[in-house]
Design brief:
Helices cover 49% and strands 9% of the residues. It is of the alpha/beta class. Helix 18 links the parallel strand 8 and strand 9. Helix 1 packs across helix 21, helix 13 runs parallel beside helix 15 and helix 19 crosses helix 20. The chain is globular. 46% of the residues are buried.
Length: 488
């Protein structure tokens, strides 16, 4: 078998049929990513492959940076001001050592699908790849909007602060018909949650200014946030996203909350209990807003951020110094939150991603206790970050299938800052088809191509279309039939 040939990750004939005849050509709804709407709107060609692959726009790829550090590459050629070609060659040398890491497969898949380069990427082939890729990057087909459109993406949900004015979303909305896809905001209130990180008072002023709500206490903050929900909703937003590195369920009275907010505004130290109280009551209100607006609330939990403190101080967050969290009871604390919110019927559609796969079974079974009011309203999200591997995806599919109804799953997302990450959806679909192919091979499900084909199509695209409500004006088939050829 050649590297990433037509059958890679597909272990039997049923898996191959399901992928090639059913899943392969389904459109993409990318309901969670970190693409920058400014870069989508400005639609500028990237000067070379290093800029779009390793140090893209205002972001960088910390997945790649971690591997480069492990290979002894100096920081100058990772996040520093080293020459772009030298950085590219350092990445080629790193990829040579990365067999078995998903980045080895993703890197080659991106070269094949976007640049039609089939060579094994290493230091020997890198100079020719650099030349060919850079020439293509100057063409119209490789501008950001066409990179999205040519992968048959129908919706892109960016990650946006509640206080954002969504200026570029407004501009992109005006060019939607031309683009062939929708760019929609998804609310992520990290700065609101991070009351103890500094800058809280400045953030509340910004939130007050943009919402028109004068903020003096906790309930004023909630009034401002509800106004932002309404604004995001008018702009097509249908999701929120919440990062919980750790979490403990501790409720608080209104007076306690106002005192906590006052301490945050004055940059005073908060006790662990006060932090838990603030976050708990914030989440309770956010759950109510998500339910009221019929949004989907996403939780990314149990990670540890910025372990290398000197490098964090030098480079900032999201630069490759994070790890799997180890709070053993975080799923149990979330259970308490959901139990409380069921008392008032305020549980929204929810998707849970834990970086620690030890939480998956507890989360999956907890969700089963609150599946009310519609089809699969609570879901175990796709394997996240360090679990974004063939084995991690397969494990997540197995737990979802065994503890709930996998055919209802909303499927894959890129969770990426890169315009070249869309082949991850192909990768996931191959793992998905192989999962069902194995079940057929083991005699555990019927050898029924049509039924299984419908399931993998639903997970690849149809379920996300139906679950999130991004296209109230179009049917799934109407979107499916608006297709685009890949760049040549």
């Amino acid at each position: 078998m050649d590297l990433l040939d037509d059958d890679f990750l597909l272990g039997n004939e049923m898996a191959k049929k399901l992928f090639n005849d059913y899943a392969k050509d389904m459109p993409i709804i990318d309901f969670h990513c970190h693409l920058n709407p400014v870069e989508i709107y400005e639609n500028k060609n990237y000067p070379n492959i290093t800029r779009i692959w390793l140090n893209e726009g205002t972001y960088g790829d910390h997945y790649k940076w971690r591997l480069m550090r492990a290979n002894g590459v100096p920081e100058e050629l990772i996040t520093g001001d080293g020459d772009d070609y030298d950085k590219f060659m350092a990445w080629a040398g790193t990829i040579e050592q990365s067999m078995g890491n998903p980045l080895y497969e993703w890197t080659h898949l991106e070269l094949k699908r976007f640049f039609h380069i089939d060579d094994v990427f290493n230091r020997k082939t890198a100079p020719a790849i650099w030349k060919k890729a850079n020439a293509l990057l100057q063409t119209e087909a490789f501008k950001p909007r066409n990179l999205i459109k040519n992968m048959n993406v129908k919706a892109v949900c960016t990650t946006d602060d509640p206080a954002d004015d969504l200026r570029y979303h407004k501009l992109l909305k005006e060019t939607e018909a031309e683009n062939g896809f929708r760019t929609l905001p998804a609310m992520r209130p990290d700065k609101l949650i991070q009351i103890d990180r500094g800058g809280y008072a400045d953030y509340l002023k910004k939130l007050s200014d943009v919402s028109g709500v004068k903020i003096n206490g906790f309930m004023d903050i909630m009034a401002a946030v509800k106004q932002r929900f309404s604004f995001f909703n008018d702009m097509g937003g249908r999701l929120s996203d919440h990062s919980l590195l750790t979490y403990h369920f501790v409720e608080a009275s209104d007076s306690e909350l106002d005192a906590i907010v006052n301490k945050g505004i004055n940059n005073q130290d908060l006790t662990p209990k006060e932090l838990d109280q603030y976050i708990t009551m914030l989440l309770e209100n956010l759950m109510k807003f998500n339910k009221e607006f019929n949004w989907t609330m996403q939780f990314h939990i149990n990670s540890v951020r910025d372990l290398n403190r000197p490098m964090f101080k030098k480079l900032g967050a999201d630069t490759g110094y994070d790890a799997v969290g180890t709070q053993p009871d975080i799923a149990g604390e979330i259970q308490k939150l959901y139990t409380k919110m069921r008392d008032t019927n305020d549980i929204p559609k929810s998707i849970f991603y834990s970086l620690n796969d030890n939480d998956w079974m507890q989360l999956a079974t907890m969700m089963g206790s609150f599946q009310e009011g519609g089809k699969q309203r609570l879901q175990l999200g796709a394997g996240w970050w360090f679990n974004d591997t063939a084995e991690g995806m397969d494990n997540q599919l197995r737990i979802f299938a065994q503890e709930s109804l996998l055919p209802n799953f909303v499927g894959m997302l890129t969770d990426s800052r890169s315009f070249l990450s869309y082949p991850r959806h192909e990768y996931f679909r191959r793992v998905l088809c192989n999962f069902y192919g194995k079940l057929v091979e083991q005699g555990r499900v019927p050898n029924d191509e049509a039924t299984l084909g419908k399931i993998v199509q639903d997970i690849s695209y149809n379920n996300a279309y139906n679950f999130f409500g991004f296209f109230p004006d179009k049917t799934p088939d109407e979107l499916f039939n608006t297709s685009y050829s890949t760049s040549k």
